[in-house]
Design goal:
- The protein is mainly β and 146 residues long.
- The protein has one domain (3-144): M1 Pyruvate Kinase, Domain 3, CATH 2.40.33.
- The chain has helices spanning 53-61, 108-112, 116-119; strands at residues 3-14, 21-24, 26-30, 33-34, 48-52, 75-77, 89-92, 95-102, 126-132, 134-137, 141-144.
- Strand 7 (89-92) and strand 8 (95-102) form a beta hairpin.
Length: 146
């Protein structure tokens, strides 16, 4: 049996030719990433961005309110994965992702508030590549496969 870590809270895609993010009830993914996302088939090691509710809490403690999806994530989860090492696999629904690298801070975060980049320096998110494609849905369980 797998070690259950948490759940998927929300799912997002970036819209082509826009800075807008679209919240989804489910996300279809394959080896090239999230199928509807504008970053699909751009860099397989950065196919999926996973962020934690903890990141939003860090920002909120500084009285900065930002809506979910603002950190550019595809998956928002209720577990803090930032201590997991690259190579760690995560099972989410019927999919398997592998952590490939930690997310760096992007310039667009300072447009939210000048404090956000320093607040989230090591807590913005993690990138994962798709090992086994499928469908991820809101509420799916996140676990480490045995």
């Amino acid at each position: 049996m797998a070690d259950i870590l948490g759940n998927v809270i929300a799912l997002f895609v970036s819209i082509q030719n826009s800075k807008k993010r679209l919240e989804k009830k489910s996300l279809s993914i394959n080896s090239k990433g999230a199928i509807e996302d504008k970053f699909y088939n751009k860099n397989i090691n950065r196919s999926i961005l996973i962020a934690s509710l903890d990141s939003y809490c860090l920002v909120k403690k500084e009285k900065i309110n930002i809506p979910y999806g603002s950190l550019g994530e595809n998956l928002l989860i209720d577990y803090n994965p930032y201590h997991l090492s690259p190579g760690t696999q995560l099972q989410i629904g019927n999919t398997v992702l592998e952590i490939s690298q930690y997310c760096t801070i992007c310039d667009h975060l300072s447009s939210i508030d000048k404090k956000v980049p320093s607040l989230l320096k090591n807590n913005r998110g993690i990138f994962a590549k798709v090992i086994k494609g499928g469908e991820i849905k809101q509420g799916d369980i996140l676990s480490i496969p045995k």
